[in-house]
């Protein structure tokens, strides 16, 4: 009797459709070099513009379907060349800071970025962030070692 029961369960496993696993490739990049002024929302330097063009060259064939930036000019400008090359509109997510520590991004902002990444089953996603936001995204995606980004 045990044999028949195990056989029926085994047969059901093959009949019940399983969701296909589709990995997401995530490219996490800190914005390119920024100018010192204006202090609040500086543009990229000439070197930063060149680096953003190099990013477009490197990831141009990486099947990037979604590009996520923060609300700041430097992240948008870093993503602009690859967005144009791939004809993909970048999604800007406003990052808010933790009220008790202004250098730390609020958890709900990191969750919003992470959720946007996870909506892209089977595709590649580029996230252009900041030295204080990229490590938090790595943690929220399950990474156990987060780099210190200059």
Give the SSE map:
Layout: H1 2-15, E1 25-30, H2 46-59, E2 64-69, H3 73-86, E3 91-92, E4 97-98, E5 101-105, H4 107-118, E6 124-129, H5 134-140
Parallel strand pairs: 1-6, 2-3, 2-6
Antiparallel strand pairs: 4-5
Helix pairs in contact: 2-3
Write up this protein.
With 150 residues, the protein is an alpha/beta fold. Helix content is 41%, strand content 18%. The chain contains five helices and six strands, in the order αβαβαβββαβα. The strands form two sheets. The chain has a four-stranded parallel β-sheet, with helices on both faces. α2 runs parallel beside α3. The longest helix is centred in the N-terminal third of the chain and has 14 residues, at 2-15. The radius of gyration is 20 Å and the shape is globular.
Q: Gist?
A:
By secondary structure, this protein is α/β, with parallel strands linked by helices. The chain is built from 5 helices and 6 strands.
């Amino acid at each position: 009797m045990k044999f028949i029961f195990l056989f029926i369960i085994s047969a059901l496993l093959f009949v019940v459709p399983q969701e296909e696993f589709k990995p997401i490739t995530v490219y996490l990049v800190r914005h390119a070099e920024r100018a010192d002024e204006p202090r609040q929302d500086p543009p990229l330097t000439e070197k930063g513009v060149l680096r953003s063009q190099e990013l477009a060259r490197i990831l141009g064939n990486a099947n990037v379907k979604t590009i996520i930036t923060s609300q700041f000019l430097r992240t948008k400008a870093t993503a602009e060349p690859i967005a144009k090359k791939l004809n993909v509109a970048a999604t800007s997510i406003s990052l808010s800071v933790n009220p008790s520590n202004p250098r730390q991004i609020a958890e709900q902002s990191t969750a919003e970025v992470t959720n946007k990444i996870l909506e892209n089953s089977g595709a590649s996603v580029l996230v252009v962030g900041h030295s204080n936001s990229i490590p938090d995204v790595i943690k929220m995606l399950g990474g156990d070692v987060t780099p210190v980004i200059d």
